[in-house]
Amino acid sequence: MNTTPDQRLARTFVTLADTLVADFDVLDFLAVLAERSVEHLAVDAAGVILSDQRGGWRPAAGSSERADLVELFAAQTRQGPCFDCLAVGEAVTSADLSAPSQLRRWPRFAPAALDAGFRAASAVPMRLRDQTIGALTLLNHDPVELNADTIAVGQALADVATIGILHHRAAGRGELLAEQLEATLQHRIVVEQAKGVLAEYGGLEMHDAFTLLREYAHERQRRLSDVARDLAEGTLRADEITAGRIG
């Protein structure tokens, strides 16, 4: 049965709010946030960065695992709309990164985004009251100005994801938020290692390797980070993941 855009958006909010499960996987949760943001906000790519609890920010998830996009999200932890929105605690947008004013504003980020094929960038903070844990980045290939309604929906997606993460933490065993976020970022490093192992074994692009990891984890109802650790440490073979999935 066909569903309307509003119905699909409502289902996404339900998905992002439902974190009270025993096998809640923060990395997969953030990947869903990025992917659904692309779907609902009519942007070409999206990514999430999180606080590393030492005064810095690090990439945690993206709508694609393309190498140039991963590098661009990493660059946003030092400069760009994402970095600025974390400083001011509200949405920051740029409709045309090729404009001289934007190149002067972000002399490292803007050229990197243009090289990756993106002309417009926006970011909204992941926050609850006065607590900001990260930001959601939105990228477009064309120079477009996201309207107020789109930014509002993006902020709502970021807010409900933040509430979900904080709610899961509060419902757990008293785990501190700082410890949870740090563990998530460490898990992301392991996922990067596992992607490399799988990509080299199967001759795959990084995004395809990541997709196979997620599919394997979902099919076996395991956390993405656990599957990635097993592959990186050699207790899970790459051919077990690729079997029947690549030709």
Description:
With 247 residues, the chain is α+β, with helices and mostly antiparallel strands. The chain has two domains: 5-174, Beta-Lactamase (2-Layer Sandwich), CATH 3.30.450.40; 185-242, Winged helix-like DNA-binding domain superfamily/Winged helix DNA-binding domain (Arc Repressor Mutant, subunit A), CATH 1.10.10. Helix content is 56%, strand content 14%. The chain has helices spanning 5-17, 26-41, 67-75, 81-88, 100-105, 109-115, 148-171, 177-202, 206-219, 224-233, 238-242, and strands at residues 45-51, 57-62, 92-94, 120-128, 131-140. The chain has a five-stranded antiparallel β-sheet, sandwiched between helices. The two termini are 32 Å apart.
Helix content: 55-70%
The fraction of residues assigned to DSSP E strands is 5-15%
Main β-sheet description: 5 strands, antiparallel
Please report the number of helical segments.
Answer: 11
CATH fourth-tier homologous superfamily of the largest domain: GAF domain
GO molecular function, one term: kinase activity
Keywords: Kinase, Transcription, Transcription regulation, Transferase
Protein name: GAF and ANTAR domain-containing protein
Pfam family, one: GAF_2
